[in-house]
Amino acid sequence: MYGILTDDPELARTGPGEVTHFFAEYVDGTRNEPLEGAISSVSCWGDTKTVRDEPGRAAVAADGTRATPDAEGHHWGTVCPTDPDYRAAVLERIERLGATGDVRLTTLGFPGASFCHCDRCDREFEASDATDRTAWRTDVITDFVADAAARVSGELLATLYPDPYPGNLRERAGLDPEALTPHVSEFVVPLCGAGYGTTYWVESLARGFARELEDLDATFAIQLSTTDVDPDRLAGLTRQLDSHADTIVYGTYPETEAVVRDVIRSVGETEAPTPSA
Ligand SMILES: [Zn+2]
User: Fold this and answer.
1) How much of the chain is in helix, strand and coil states, percent to nearest 5?
2) What residue numbers bound the domain in which 218 lies?
3) 186 φ, ψ to 5°?
């Protein structure tokens, strides 16, 4: 199956593909009204606006680095996942969006292996019965996803950091696909790269995730970018990935819509014809 991810309401309504992911809440703090029939994409702890307004809410690394957009390796601000007021507010928004349809969670998890060491996280870890910090962080994220799932009437999708090496998702972000599966119907992995000058890494990561997720009761979607990509290259990449994923979702803008239409048509034409009823 093919679909699009967009923040353009018109494109979301009329665009190509069988499924549409619509940015209801983006990492910069932008919020859009949900669209009927589209999956609402919600940034959980990535929230540059909140971190700029209230830097004290940003997650803190063991060396004291705060998860701001200016910190090395961070492209947006990330709020500490145990901030109780922020957590409650995100869940409230998920409930509102989930009343109209499916919800996709993005920026899910801690923003790196050394986060979060704020005073509250240190206190909560010490008070927990978790065997180590990785187990505690994973419990924090899994509990949040379970609470989110209880508030969504449709399906809940979870975005994973693109690192399928066994154990890495837990260590990096507190994400454990097996623990999340009871609450989630699909995992989405962004494998985005401007132009896709090389594609071996995309195929390698896709294959790794397909293996990691194959025994879980959830489908697997790959998100690709469309900026500055030759349509033939993107169609070729899609064919390479087709056997690994259930769905390919293209990050689409009005200016790249034609490319996405071409790609979906092209891969459709090369698929084995299905017998007509
Ligand atoms: Zn914290």
Assistant:
1) 40, 20, 40
2) 2-47+80-112+132-270
3) -150, 140
pTM of the model: 0.95
User: Is 121 contained in some domain?
Assistant: no
Evaluate whether residue 183 is within a structural domain: yes
Closest to 164 in 3D by CA, of 134, 207, 209, 210:
209
What does the block give as tokens for 149? 């799932």
pLDDT in tens, 93-133: 999 999 989 999 999 999 999 999 999 999 999 999 999 99
Q: How far is the CA of 116 from the centre of ligand 1 (A)?
A: 4
How many helices (H) and strands (E) in the chain? 10, 8
Q: How far is the CA of 50 from the centre of ligand 1 (A)?
A: 15
Let me know if residue 237 belongs to a domain: yes
Could you tell me the distance, in angstroms and rounded to a whole number, from the CA of residue 272 to the centre of ligand 1? 51
Q: For residue 24, is it within any domain?
A: yes
Cα–Cα distances in angstroms (integers) from residue 10 to residues 15, 16, 38, 98, 253, in the given order? 8, 12, 12, 21, 10
Q: Determine what percent of the chain is predicted with pLDDT higher than 90.
A: 91
- How high does pLDDT run on average in the chain? 95
Q: Residue 186 C-alpha to ligand 1 middle, in angstroms?
A: 27
| CATH classification at residue 165 | 3.20.20.80
| Ligand 1 center from residue 193 Cα (angstroms) | 31
User: How far, in Å, is the centroid of ligand 1 from the Cα of 231?
Assistant: 43
Give the total number of structural domains in the chain.
Answer: 1
The alpha carbon of 74 and the centre of ligand 1 are apart by a number of angstroms equal to: 16
